Amino acid sequence: MKKLVVAAAALSAMLAFADTFPAKPITIVVPFTAGGPTDRVARDLAEAMRKPLGGVSILVDNAAGAGGSIGANKVAKATPDGYTLLLHHIGMATMPTLVRNIPFKVESDFEYLGAVNDVPMTLIGRPSLPAKNYKELATWIEQNKGKINLGNAGIGSASHLCGLLYQNAVGVDMVTVPYKGTAPAMTDLIGGQIDFMCDQTTNTSGQIEAKKVIAYAVTTAKPLTTPALKDLPTLQASGLKGFEVTIWHGLYAPKGTPADVLVKLNGALKVALKDPEFIKKQEGLGAVVVSDKRVEPAEHKKFVAAEIAKWSPIIKAAGVYAD
Question: Read out DSSP for 129-151?
């Protein structure tokens, strides 16, 4: 009888907690530096989720490093009460292979809340690069083997992954230059310290529109329709058959977060994904807000498992790791 009373009391406390959630600010941890594409998505999402969560403040905490695993581990080890969440991109699928001695398990140490968006990538070059279109870029690459500097936002970043695939596709090894985030990489690209990079439209659209970089192609199967990108060819149409890279973002909570709290958070996420202002902001960056079954936690988890299977052999073949 005593055990039943204790269990009933615990259940009552959990229900009461869920009824009052959220009663204080929520923090979304971004495992990359401030100002980068994932950071921008997180800040837009935080604003869109505030209203369905009763107007509570939602803060963004940037915890960068080790291929995104430092920020992810921070959430995995956080108190499972719904007040600490993780917004991560495709890195959730690459960390298991990319990061040595990863201190958590992607598929079992998180509660999956749902997917957020799909983000195309763009191949962009320094403004002084002599190649002005993709055909000329392909020729320039052939003529400059061994001298090409390909920048990225750090090992494990979306730009790093896209760069790996691109080098493999064109069959040319390049000097990869990792930075501590997208912002410094973009600064050096504009300044001519590196030759080109492949990065998310959430970070490149503004620079392309302002003509601070040369845009060569997009990584989607079909051309994009956003104003700054609508005239760019796809890499597939440019001769790289089968080349397609889309970066996605998802939202997660620590394992053990109460089920009723997860339902509230998933409900708020679904409302945010239908918010016209959020959709407008994402479309302006070239991103597509998720509207398919991946908004459901179980479906997003299945999707991530499939992505892990896809990326693992690519990363192993490249022999790169984020320690």
Answer: -S--SHHHHHHHHHHTTT--EEE
